[in-house]
Amino acid sequence: MPRPSSSFKKRQKERNRLEKQREKAEKRAQRRREKQERGASSLDDAIDFEASIYDFIPPEDRPEPAAEATPEEKPN
User: Fold this and answer.
1) The pTM is what?
2) Predicted confidence band at 23 (pLDDT cuts at 50, 70, 90)?
3) What is the mean pLDDT of residues 50-74?
4) What is the spatial distance between Cα 58 and Cα 65, in angstroms, rounded to a whole number?
5) What whole-number percentage of the chain has pLDDT above 70?
6) What is the secondary structure of the chain as a DSSP string?
């Protein structure tokens, strides 16, 4: 007689997998609802999305801006 319990074990394993997947989906939905209720996070408020890379470099370490050559200094 082939192992009749193997089919049962497979069904149980699949049932557990589906249950775990359902629980994760519920948790994700709950987190989304909580996030929407809170609105923007304080971190989002603290981030300046218009900042340039030079805003994060200390002034003493910033590169010198390229000097424009005046017409008198340009070679002919």
Assistant:
1) 0.44
2) very high
3) 70
4) 15
5) 70
6) ---HHHHHHHHHHHHHHHHHHHHHHHHHHHHHHHHHHH-S-HHHHH--TT--GGGGS-GGGSPPPPPPPPTTTS--
Q: Which amino acid makes up residue 58?
A: P
Residue whose pair of structure tokens reads 């996070």 in the numeric block? 41
In the chain, domain spans: 10-61
Q: How far apart are CA 46 and CA 49, in angstroms?
A: 9
More confident residue, 17 or 45: 17
Dist. CA 57–CA 32, nearest whole Å: 36
Q: Which two tokens stand for residue 19?
A: 């249950």
Rounded to a whole number, what is the largest CA-CA distance in the chain? Answer: 101
Rounded Cα gap, residues 45 and 32, in angstroms: 19
